[in-house]
Amino acid sequence: MQLIPVLDIKDGIVVHAKLGLRAQYAPIQSPLCASSAVVEVINAFLTVAPFKIVYIADLNAIMQNGNNTPLLKDLLQTYPQLTFWIDSGYQAQPHFLSCFSNYQAVLGSESYSTEKLPTLALFEKNFVLSLDFANQPLGAARLFTDPSLWPDKIIIMTLVQVGSGLGVDSEKLKKYQALGKNKTLIASGGIRDKADVLALKESGIAYALCASALHSGAITAADFAFF
After folding, report:
1. What is the dihedral of CA 182, 183, 186, 190, to 10 degrees?
2. DSSP readout, 98-152?
3. 49, 62, 114, 208: which has the fewest Cβ within 10 Å?
4. Are 159 and 191 in contact (CB under 8 A)?
5. How does pLDDT run across 91-111, given as a tens digit for each residue?
6. Coil, strand or helix: which one is 166?
7. Hey, is 164 helix, strand or coil?
8. Under a CB-based contact definition with an 8 Å cutoff, are residues 129 and 154 in contact?
9. What pTM, to 2 d.p., does this model score?
10. Where on the phi/psi map is residue 189: left (φ > 0), alpha (ψ -120 to 50), or beta?
């Protein structure tokens, strides 16, 4: 099991994602890190474990209100040892950041309506697909039912459980494990502690996105010996 720390970036700083209510996201206040500066938060995560992958949501780009691309470019250059999975919202073609070897595009279903779905072919499955859920699936319905559209790695992103402390959506993960045989599923939303991570591992989930439990100290450096 590999945990992937998450940074939600809005207007150049890290914000606290909770329940998918993006308009209400405020600068993060964390026992792990006294700053909401992106580099400071990444460095704080690296004191917990030698993470290899960091997930970033560029909320400005996702909400079509500007972007944080210059900052992301700086991060790719500053941390060549890290692979950054980056969701920059809808992309009609591969992002220019693709020239960096440590960049991996994340394409979220919420940004791909049925009309925009054909553009996925331009990526030749070189992306991580995020199947996004609020109270219902977000995006083109076919993305949720047709595994032939899927790349190897699929995030099950339950936005209403992000930062909630409600636990993971095990039933949804089981459903998509059955639908996407031979695909690698990544859990996102609701991880509370070590027990939740071990339960995911036991169920065959190889990766999980996590932020709140790392910031709060509910998952500590000592726990990684068990993952």
Report:
1. -70
2. GGSTTEEEEEEGGG--TTTGGGGGGGTT-SEEEEEESSSEES-GGGGT-GGG--S
3. 114
4. no
5. 999 999 999 999 999 999 999
6. coil
7. coil
8. yes
9. 0.94
10. left
